[in-house]
Inverse folding.
């Protein structure tokens, strides 16, 4: 079986010179299950997620995955690596004018020649899989609707289907539920957990809702001030840990 574990060593990110957002992150993430990253806004959770797939350029450090240092890749090597890293975004990142089916199929563009990608000439096997995924996420009847006609929860379902269409070796999710109501948030986490579990895809999710993270994630990483201050089983997360992560105590029931 392919090794899908991720190792992060000494990861630093500075948007402004001398002011690090990530302060030497060291993490080992297993090649299965769901890992949640929690912490207050501005502590570097999204930056960490986006450094892994190089949407944000690390300042220094290593991101080791399948025999490569993702932090050092460029050009064709980086594009090839990104094909294997699925991404679910907070704001969905769909192409609004395209149909639901077309958005899901964009998950295969990285595997096609530039000419076929431009023509959107997808093989029948990809189209068949896209229909199957839309059925799985409950949107089979929406395949030909434009993305901009969907609700927030429906858009996120399309985003998840698109990410899974990449056949990723790891799935990253950056605040996938923050724009959704509580019921839809649970449904989205259930969907990600189900799809990732059946396909044995490790998931790293940056999430604000601590209770939601506890419910669906086998491991929780707490960050504050650009550093990891908690790393363990959800059952081991105490009020004292939460005070250290978020500061203060009035918000804890």
């Amino acid at each position: 079986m392919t090794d899908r574990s991720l190792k992060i060593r000494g990861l630093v990110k500075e948007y402004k010179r001398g002011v690090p957002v990530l302060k030497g992150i060291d993490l080992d993430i297993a090649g299965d299950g769901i890992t949640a990253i929690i912490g207050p806004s501005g502590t570097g959770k999204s930056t960490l997620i986006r450094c892994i797939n190089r949407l944000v350029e690390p300042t220094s450090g290593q991101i080791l995955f399948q025999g490569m240092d993702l932090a050092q890749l460029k050009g064709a090597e980086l594009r090839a690596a990104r094909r294997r890293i699925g991404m679910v975004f907070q704001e969905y990142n769909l192409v609004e004018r395209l149909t639901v089916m077309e958005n899901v199929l964009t998950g295969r563009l990285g595997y096609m020649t530039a000419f076929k990608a431009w023509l959107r000439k997808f093989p029948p096997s990809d189209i068949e899989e896209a229909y199957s995924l839309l059925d799985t996420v409950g949107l089979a009847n929406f395949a030909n609707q434009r993305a901009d006609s969907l609700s927030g929860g429906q858009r996120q379902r399309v985003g998840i289907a698109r990410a899974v269409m990449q056949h990723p070796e790891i799935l990253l999710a950056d605040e996938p539920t923050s724009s959704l109501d509580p019921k839809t948030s649970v449904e989205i986490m259930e969907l990600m957990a189900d799809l990732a579990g059946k396909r044995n895809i490790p998931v790293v999710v940056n999430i604000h809702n601590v209770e939601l993270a506890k419910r669906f994630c086998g491991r929780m990483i707490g960050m504050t001030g650009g550093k990891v201050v908690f790393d363990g089983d959800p059952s081991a997360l105490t009020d004292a840990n939460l005070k250290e992560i978020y500061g203060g105590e009035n918000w804890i029931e």
